[in-house]
Amino acid sequence: MTLYDIKPQFQNLLRPLVLKLHQRGVTPNQVTLTALAMSVIAGVLLSAFPCPLLFLSLGVFLTVRMALNALDGMLAREFNQQTRTGAILNEVGDILSDVSLYLPFAFLPDVSLWWVILVLFLSCLTEFCAVVSQTLTGQRGNGGPLGKSDRALLFGTTGLGIALWPQYLFIINIVFIIAAPLLVWTCINRCRGAMVAKNV
């Protein structure tokens, strides 16, 4: 069970906006690039000014990013605008956005750079496993327990916590230490799902 399981309900909330974007001629690739640009800018600003209070905005950026990610997929599927370029932008954009939005934690005092790097590497690996699953089965692997949406909730909440209680910055290390094995578990689940589907 992951946040991905409630994606249909989330999409239903966004459907009126999807219709308006389509009517105005907005393409899925434009939405994808907007999400990527916003993530990179936010990551650069948080890295350049690693003030705990500013991390209050991380949850906002992550929520907007998740909404934009849902919108580009809905525009592509529901209005027959799926392209190979869009598929590449979607996968590469997810990885670059993750790195951009989570790397700033490493610039906070008392936070271990190596744990942040490990979690970023494993986050990228989960997306790679998802693509491998899609290559083998025709369906993207979205198993948990720490998929893209779950990571957004975890680190968005962490950003809120350190903004409100900056004296407990050291707890961020615990969050990353817990996240690492959960990401490994996610990779295993996604690969296992692909193997079962192909009867390997």
Helix content class: over 70%
Annotated CATH architecture:
Up-down Bundle
CATH class: Mainly Alpha
Number of DSSP-assigned strands: 0
Radius of gyration: 17 Å
Low-confidence stretches: none
Question: Hey, roughly how much beta strand do the residues contain?
Answer: under 5%
Described by strand count, sense and barrel closure, the largest sheet is:
none
**Secondary-structure class:** mainly alpha
Pfam family, one: CDP-OH_P_transf
Keywords: Membrane, Transferase, Transmembrane, Transmembrane helix
Protein name: CDP-alcohol phosphatidyltransferase family protein
GO biological process, one term: phospholipid biosynthetic process
Give a concise summary.
The two termini are 24 Å apart. The mean pLDDT is 91.
